[in-house]
Amino acid sequence: MKKNTYLLVCGAIAKEVLAVLDANNWQHIEVDALPAILHNSPDKIPAMVDKKLSDAGGRYQNLLVGYADCGTGGMLDPVLTKHDAKRLDGPHCYSFFAGHADFEAMAEDELGTFYLTDYLVRQFDTVFWKSMGLDRYPELLSSYFGHYKRVIYLAQIPDPDLDAKAEQCAARLGLEYKRIETGLAPFDKELSTLV
After folding, report:
1. Bridge partners of residue 155, in order along the sequence
2. CA angle 54-91-174, nearest 5°?
3. 3-state DSSP assignment of residue 4
4. Which of 40, 156, 164, 165 is the most exposed place for a label (fewest CB within 10 A)?
5. Which CA distances in Å does 168 have to 12, 88, 116, 172?
6. Strand order, beta sheet including 62-66
7. What is the pTM of this model?
8. How far apart are CA 160 and CA 173, in angstroms?
9. Are the C-beta atoms of residues 45 and 70 closer than 8 Å to each other?
10. Sequential DSSP letters for 71-105
11. How confident is the model at residue 2 (pLDDT cuts 50, 70, 90)?
12. Whether the predicted pLDDT of 14 surpasses 80
């Protein structure tokens, strides 16, 4: 089958994207990914997306982007307009993994919540601990996380090892821990709307 759709995704959700595409037998989609570490510098996301969409332009009927706004402050949308591309709805991946209404309820319940996904649990040391310098300067912990009260782990797949690691992450941050199993259904719904 000819792949007529290009889907550029954040590396942090690539595994979940591939699982949803496979479950729906969407073989017409070519998937490409940008490094997940871009979330630590979201101002770079629009330029990287622009370059990838420019490279893909003309070869596909549909250009899709597996990012929400992701901290770009609205700067991603003009890039998408330029390329006639569409993106996932919402402010960030936590919202579409949990479902927008459920995420809003969680956020309203406690603004001081730090969210983890399967990817972020797996990469906690790289994405947070080391990149924020907490391995070298543990005294920064209260500066970074002093206003947080809890960690919510939005679990996409059942995995006791990830559950244990997520709980350890919360303990290292000195925060209350809560696990919510979202599965992939809310994300499947969002991706289906995009595709």
Report:
1. 181
2. 125
3. coil
4. 164
5. 20, 31, 12, 6
6. 29-34, 5-10, 62-66, 86-87
7. 0.87
8. 20
9. yes
10. TSTT-HHHHHHHHT-EE-SSSSHHHHHH-HHHHHH
11. low
12. yes
Question: For residue 117, which of 45, 33, 179 has the smallest C-alpha distance?
Answer: 179
Q: Cα separation of 175 and 150, whole Å?
A: 5
At residue 115, the pLDDT reads 96
User: Strands across the sheet with 113-116, in order?
Assistant: 113-116, 150-155, 176-181
Number of Cα atoms under 13 Å in the Cβ half of residue 130: 6
Confidence of residue 1 (pLDDT cuts 50, 70, 90): low
Three-state helix/strand/coil letters over 29-52: EEEEEECHHHHHCHHHHHHHHHHH
Is there a contact between 175 and 116 (Cβ–Cβ < 8 Å)? no
Q: What is the pLDDT of residues 56-76, one digit of tens each?
A: 978 999 999 998 888 888 999
Neighbours of 90 (CB within 10 A): 19
